Amino acid sequence: MTTISPLHPSDWPAVRRIYEEGIATGEATFETAAPADWESWDAGKRPDCRLVARSADGRVLGWAALSPTSKRPAYAGVCEVSIYVAAEARGQGVGSALMAALITAAQSAGIWTLQSSVFPENEATIALHLRHGFRILGRRERIAQLHGVWRDTLLLERREL
């Protein structure tokens, strides 16, 4: 049984390991390395919308967090979604449980727009977002390079208002 709970600083080693697994796929992010320490990761995330999925024995199977998209007050309710699932737990509903709980946390925090930028090849992540009420707004062509290769992303959005 998987349970969802708040993410704490003590979860950082597992969160970092899972993030590194996602980075290694080449389909999860433009980042090429996880932050070296908790403080660096923590600085970019909202403190009220961070979750982990745990196995029955307490192992962290995945994590989810929201990052503000802007420091401007007008965009205070617009956040970017990050969800990462451990390789061993993919395809078992962990991502869906995290997404549902993250949406609930966002609603409680007054967030009105959730957005994600996803590589078009990452079909599982796109399907996860679509199952949870996101829509594809468009394709951003050659938006950035990963390992010297220009990549496209799809911009997905879920609106509460």
Task: Report what the structure shows.
The protein has helices spanning 12-25, 38-43, 94-108, 123-131; strands spanning 3-6, 50-54, 60-68, 78-85, 113-118, 135-146, 149-159. It is α+β, with helices and mostly antiparallel strands. The protein has one domain: 3-Layer(aba) Sandwich (Aminopeptidase). It has a 7-stranded mixed beta sheet. It is globular. The N and C termini lie far apart (33 Å).
Level-1 CATH class name: Alpha Beta
CATH architecture: 3-Layer(aba) Sandwich
CATH homologous superfamily identity? Gcn5-related N-acetyltransferase (GNAT)
- Rg from alpha-carbon coordinates: 15 Å
Distance between the termini: 33 Å
**Biggest β-sheet strands, sense, barrel:** 7 strands, mixed
**What order do the SSEs take from the amino end to the carboxyl end, as H and E?**
EHHEEEHEHEE
Proportion of residues in extended strands: 25-35%
Average pLDDT over all residues: 97
Number of strands: 7
CATH topology: Aminopeptidase
